[in-house]
Protein 1
Amino acid sequence: MLLAACSTSQEIKRPDGSSEYDIQCGAATGWDICYSKANEVCPGGYQDLSKDGGFNRKELHILCKR
């Protein structure tokens, strides 16, 4: 099993009914893994809201396009 390529996503519902997603990837992964997950979660496209890389994680916050 390859843990370095793992990523998770959490849906956050906005008051207007749209969905934001918090995508978390391991620090050992490249940003391409996070962006692949973003494309999987929002196949119609998305807007980057924030991007943060820390010592032990990478985090991408996106808004799916309608």
Protein 2
Amino acid sequence: MAVSRLFEILYYLVDHKQTTAKELAEYFEVSVRTIYRDLDRLLVAGIPINTVQGNNGGISIDENFVVEKAVFNPQEQKQILTAIQTIEHLQGTNQNALVTKLTAMFDQEQRDWIEVDFSTWHKANNLNHKFYLLKEAVFNNRIVEFNYVNSYGENSKRKVLPNKLFFKSNTWYLQGYCLIKTDYRIFKLTRINDLVLTSDVFNEKIKFPPVITSYDNHFMMKKVKLKFNKNLGNVVFDEFNKDEILLDQAGNYIVETDVFDNYWLISFILSFGSQIEIIEPIDLKEKLLDEIEKIKKIYK
């Protein structure tokens, strides 16, 4: 739900006195169905909205209704402004006018406290555009199509009804109902290519989405014990929890943790070269040595 849109609808009704669901849908660039859902939420919140059928009917707000800052205590006022500013940065939309209005009404100092940049340090990418298209799909029940590269490097065409975007371990993911696999799937946004927001609207009933517990849940977990060089403290604390980290007498970092047993683990260890050592398990050492032999053959 777009919190900012609810406030904008409220101000629109106060300013225009009477309107229609179609006019609101066109103004906010959403479906009529979405507008009615927003109006229901405003009614539940106690906003006196009236709807009248007929040629001269429409949607209006009680003429005696006034938006007063006294409705919200100072802490709630800050939370509202914070929520809208967060939405602005995450959705890539401009809510400055709304933030300014509410800031003045609440008599609060406007603080630009958050900034979200989807590009990486070493290159620019199109995550902002993907985020915008997927947000539109989620709020309007639109189907998206894209090419996806899975964990094995395999490319496939997907047709998906997006359910939600979520941020986990420094990466954005999409949970959606795949119409090809006829089940929910999780997709890493950086592996989504050629994303298209179709005009197809999906209104059929599907099962409730599962709780997101893991991205790579088709891989087994493996307990590992690794030793990182003492110069890699920044990496260790970025990747692992504090209670998984110990220091040895030489100041090196000993990490004991559970990780997914897939190729990521080998590539992660290889990325540190001689600055990391596998203490346990033995089979992981053997896998690493096999991979090193393959690499050596390439450069012979």
Protein 3
Amino acid sequence: GGAPAAELNRLEAEVAELEARLKRVPFLDDLDLRYRHRVYVPQPIARAVMFCLMDVSASMDERKKDIAKRFFTLLYLFLSRKYEQVDVVFVRHTDNAEEVDEDTFFHDPKSGGTVVLSALELMHEIQAERFPMTQWNIYAAQASDGDAFGSDAGKSSRFLGEKILPVCRYFAYVEIPDGQDARQSSLWVEYDTLTAASRGFAMRRVCERDEIYPVFHELFKKETA
């Protein structure tokens, strides 16, 4: 079922506060301001695409999917306030990835193993075909419990760093472990190598539903700073 109206109102208010902070950020640095009569400033792109990537293998139970849905909803609210048009692309994966509609993404059970790379490859393919970065602001949010086997984690991290992050304005990875499991997954360890080199990438762990807003706020401090 849907979230209570009071909770949605609270989330919208918090997103509005993030948006207000964003509007206070100067778009030109001091050098540009000094030479602004010579600087060509392109018109901002008024539309964004949001890729939602989710592991739907057997280990991603309903609790984890619910946490992921809340995160994706917050991101959509945030982007909807910032851009005139927001398209959403849902990519789910087990050991292979597919683009689906929202209802299938969240509610249609699917079984199989886990190959994270398949989702990243499909996102890249869709973005290249339908959402050129000259015409779209590209955002992505990935939710997983971090289960990745064999060489998948390393391959996924390399593909993310080489193919996905260069075209994204922002990529957020949310890992949803079992309970309060403190162990770092192989995917987390590999993705963590990308955080220092990319301003447009951030990752956090979320164990409970009530952690979603604080984690969202933390992730998007970068985007609003």
Protein 4
Amino acid sequence: MKFQALALALFASTGLAAPVAEDSKPAVYSLRLSSRVKSLDGAYLTANGTLLGVSSSPSAKPALFTPVVDGKTGLAELRTYPQGDGALALVGRNGLLELASLEDPASVNVPDGMTIDWTSFKLEEEAGAAAPLEYVKGEGAWVAFPRGNNKGEWSVKWKDAAALTIATYMPVKVVYEPARA
């Protein structure tokens, strides 16, 4: 009888000492600009409808994403957070692609000459600090265009090396970093 009580006590104590499983929360990131232009440097990208860019509105909140990496290619989809159904995508034509947030990019009927790409982003592994967001489809660079007549409002685009534009733009880097709680 003593042996049974001792065995039960030992068994119960090891069960109680086992670690509690934590909820596994996905890594959540925000996007911001790195630029030589002071008004753009450090500015977080926010969503204005479906378009991502820099907003001068004090109520604008940074766009958040969680990466879903394809095991075969190593490239990532940037799923919107907290919804998770949508994705950040590049949308446009003639090598000038707008950074946008689309509800379900796979279901979009893409017209001829139009590009919609949400699966070609490369992230550094285990980036604990700010790291550049890379787009791997050809040569090009991130650029920011002034948005309308609203001072401090900018849209962010990927400009293909062959794309021609007469509009004024600023070269920028888009970086991602762990979102602030």
